[in-house]
Design a protein that fits this description.
about 350 residues; alpha+beta; eleven-stranded mixed sheet; two-stranded antiparallel sheet; 5 helices; about 25% strand; ribosome biogenesis
Length: about 350
């Protein structure tokens, strides 16, 4: 057996590396690039002075309720593929306390916003958004008004009257990527450009809607799943008091000799990718998925009222047929036929 030699006290001394041999400290990474710590000032405790380093950690939770249609689920999956900074979760049961449940899910998933897809009465697709940072919630109806002509008239009692002209469409009307089959295409996970029409600066509720849409659809720059490219654009425009959404690919030349200079926007083209949908704002709440009502759309008409008018219009046709039969019977009773003298001629 070989005996182990005892360590001497001199061997326990650890040689420290010299300062010249140590590797230089790595600079800190910011949204504007790599910077040395000497160039970045320390944070000040005073709240009036903003921090020089800002990191966008926006995350969106996307979930839905049970009993939604397959088309509405495909629309939700299209939005999930367009938002690399979102997180998916299981379906949430529609109960009276689903607002508190959604707020708890947002905190558990470390998110700041939530998109909740809900189906009411099996025909009304509802889109609920809540922001934990802003403390606001918005109730939106996913629909479009392509084939509907709605007129409002004030009655003597001060109520609204509604009349629908033309053929009634089937609710809901939205188009997913699979249905459209458009020629546009862009990189999955790339950061989009957000464009808003000038109407969003008109009223206060449109400004709030614009801010919440920016928080949801704006992809953070340093997100681990995001690509550092801008090859598509999200377009939000207001028409007929509805928010219309379109997704376009930014198409440019790919040859090295045909590279566009800065500002050469005249040679760029936009190709639509999808999906298409329209948002009709219903209410704005003072809290996330609940709270006092801050704004209510005065021009909103529930799809239940439109379906009731459609049934009433169909029931009018049946009532006309019943009245026509009644009038015919009354006419026959008031004008009986005279007996025919040749009726019994061929009986013999």
């Amino acid at each position: 057996m070989v005996k182990k030699r005892k360590r001497s006290e001199s061997s326990e001394v650890v040689a420290h590396p010299k300062k010249e041999d140590a590797a230089p400290e790595r600079p800190a990474r910011t949204l504007l690039g790599w910077k040395d710590k000497s160039q970045v000032t320390d944070e000040v405790d005073d709240n009036t002075v903003a921090s020089p380093i800002f990191r966008n950690k926006e995350k969106v939770l996307v979930t839905c309720s049970r009993r939604i249609s397959y088309r509405y689920r495909h629309l939700m999956l299209n939005l999930v593929s367009l938002l690399p900074h979102c997180k998916k979760d299981n379906k949430v049961e529609s109960k009276e306390t689903k607002g508190a449940t959604l707020n708890e899910l947002v905190e558990l998933k470390s998110c700041s916003s939530c998109l909740f897809f809900e189906y009411l009465h099996f025909v009304c697709p509802i889109w609920k958004t809540g922001s934990m940072l802003m403390g606001r919630g918005i109730l939106l109806l996913v629909t479009t008004v392509d084939a509907i002509s709605i007129r409002y008239g004030s009655l003597q009692e001060g109520k609204r009257s509604l009349s629908v002209d033309g053929q009634m469409p089937q609710w809901p009307i939205f188009h997913t990527m699979e249905e459209l089959k458009l020629t546009g295409n862009h990189l999955k996970g790339s950061r989009p450009l957000l464009t808003f029409s000038a109407n969003f600066e008109k009223d206060a509720h449109w400004k709030l809607l614009k801010e919440m849409l920016i928080q949801i659809f704006e992809v953070p720059k340093d997100h681990r799943k995001a690509k550092p490219f801008h090859d598509h654009v999200f377009v939000f425009s207001i028409a007929d008091d509805h928010i219309w959404f379109r997704n376009y690919q930014i198409s440019t030349h790919h040859n090295e000799s045909d590279k566009l200079p800065r500002g050469g926007l005249d040679k760029m083209t936009l190709i639509e990718v999808g999906p298409r949908f329209c948002l009709n704002p219903i209410k704005i709440f003072g809290g996330s998925f609940g709270g006092p009502t801050l704004y209510e759309n005065p021009f909103y008409v529930s799809p239940n009222q439109i379906r009731a008018l459609e049934k009433k219009k169909k029931s009018g046709k049946f009532a006309k047929k019943v009245k026509a039969k009644t009038r015919r019977k009354m006419h026959e009773m008031s004008n009986p036929l005279e007996p025919d003298e040749f009726a019994d001629m061929w009986k013999d």
